[in-house]
Specification:
With 333 residues, this protein is α/β, with parallel strands linked by helices. The chain is 33% helix and 13% strand.
Length: 333
């Protein structure tokens, strides 16, 4: 049975599609999410956006799955989106020093690579810092949230931590003016970044990267820069990069679906990959004006039981001219 380690992809998007195709999907449980305390009853803090920590979780999940289900194939691919694209990338770096038999490649969709490479004024930045702060508090004794958060930000952080918040809570909290000017120069932030970031290091095996060109969360330039740093760090490389025009963050999973499904199938069929770096700039047949930027392709339950369900078709339906898994855990829903 072909095996994929899946990182944090919405259940109806990647895991379900992969399972329908006959792949066994391993959903990695990041430390601090599924299990909140260790054997000594001490809290386990989730190290959000820490590529090194999450790469370790991926490495633990594979032998655990094989032990639980001995019939699993020895061969696998790691695949993740956003935070989990970071984890997949970090896992590929970890394998350089700690190779794992059976690894066929890595798929990183809209990958977060380095927090400080994102625009400091990005709309998502306050929420990212709120999610990172608990691990900073747990890991760095000299860190005080007041170093980077305003009074309003400290109150949002206290609420977030007290409620053990997930996305629904996080995005309900005040986020305007919660970060102090110059927060990115904080010494703890700098130390954390050097430990947590990926890219600029050798990777093991083949890698497929898919990125939306109008992603407002993970800037395409940050991904391009991460690729450039990695190409400088390794002489032998097989990286394939697809930049999807008019596609934003989560919809890269839909628009890139056929690309990464074909790529995964080719790895399990032992199809060779040309050495080096290749970039594909796809062009949609339908204009961007015909698409809803953040739409999805799920069938939704009707709000009125007497009516037919609303079918939304997203970027996934966009026809691209083409050159004819482990799924990693992630942020709680």
């Amino acid at each position: 049975m072909a095996c994929l380690s899946l990182l944090g992809l919405t259940a109806q998007v990647a895991p379900y599609q992969l399972a329908l195709l006959g792949y066994v999907v391993i959903a990695t449980d990041y430390a601090g999410l599924g299990v909140g305390k260790d054997a000594s009853n001490k809290p386990i803090v989730h190290e959000y956006l820490n590529g090194r920590a999450q790469a370790n979780d991926v490495a633990y999940s594979i032998p655990a799955a094989r032990k639980a289900f001995p019939a699993l194939s020895e061969r696998f691919i790691a695949l993740g989106s956003s935070e989990d694209g970071l984890a997949a990338w970090g896992f590929a770096e970890k394998l350089v020093a700690e190779p794992m038999e059976g690894h066929l490649g890595t798929v990183a969709l809209s990958p977060a690579t380095r927090l400080l490479n994102l625009p400091p004024t990005a709309a998502i930045m306050p929420q990212l810092l709120l999610m990172i702060a608990p691990s900073l508090i747990a890991t760095y004794p000299d860190f005080d949230p007041a170093q980077i958060f305003t009074l309003e930000g400290q109150q949002s952080l206290e609420t977030y931590m007290a409620l053990k918040g997930c996305n629904s809570i996080l995005f309900s909290l005040p986020s305007a003016n919660i970060l102090k000017n110059g927060w990115q120069g904080n010494i703890t932030i700098q130390k954390w970044q050097e430990n947590a970031a990926v890219s600029g290091k050798p990777i093991r095996g083949y890698m497929l990267i898919i990125q939306g060109a109008v992603d407002s969360i993970i800037s395409p330039q940050s991904v391009t820069d991460a690729i450039d740093r990695t190409l400088e760090a390794i002489a032998w490389v097989r990286i394939e990069y697809h930049l999807l025009p008019d596609v934003s963050h989560a919809p890269a999973m839909y628009a890139g679906l056929q690309t990464y499904l074909d790529w995964i199938a080719a790895r399990f069929l032992d199809h060779p990959i040309e050495p080096g770096f290749t970039q594909h700039n796809r062009q949609p047949v339908r204009p961007a004006s015909s698409q809803h930027l953040e739409a999805d392709w799920f069938s939704k339950r009707p709000q009125n039981p007497g009516r037919r369900p609303n079918i939304q078709v997203s970027d996934f339906s966009r026809l691209y001219s083409v050159d004819i898994v482990e799924v990693l855990g992630g942020m709680p829903p």
